[in-house]
Specification:
With 115 residues, the chain is mostly beta strands. It is built from no helices and eleven strands. The strands form two sheets. Strands 2, 4, 5, 6, 9, 10 and 11 form a seven-stranded mixed sheet that branches. The protein starts with a strand and ends with a strand.
Length: 115
């Protein structure tokens, strides 16, 4: 059974940083494309970043390019999202996804950026 558990969210001032973690169990994340998505109040869930299998190519939404970095640690079976220079528009619930399909999602972690 696949389980994804996000952590690391919180309240931060504009310009600050946070690192989100997604601990996977049941499957090795390195065998899957992994992604981060976010959903702000009243908006649809949107793509943020993705990483190919075995830590391959990375992809970012234009809105976060240059500020966010996706990475993984095979020994901990954990994927990270380092978020720098956070802005109020980054406020959302952030979700980890395994496989870039609708099948495997974490429960989400709240990120709130104050101006």
């Amino acid at each position: 059974q696949v389980q994804l558990v996000e952590s690391g969210g919180g309240l931060v001032q504009a310009g600050g940083s946070l690192r989100l973690s997604c601990a996977a169990s049941g499957r090795a994340f390195s065998a899957y494309n992994m992604g981060w998505f976010r959903q702000a109040p009243g908006k649809e869930r949107e793509f943020v970043a993705a990483m190919g299998r075995s830590g391959g190519s990375t992809y970012y939404a234009d809105s976060v390019k240059g500020r966010f970095t996706i990475s993984g640690d095979n020994t901990k079976n954990t994927v990270y999202l380092q978020m720098n220079d956070l802005q109020p528009d980054d406020t959302a619930v952030y979700y980890c996804n395994m496989g870039l399909t609708t099948q495997y999602w974490g429960q989400g972690t709240q990120v709130t950026v104050s101006s």
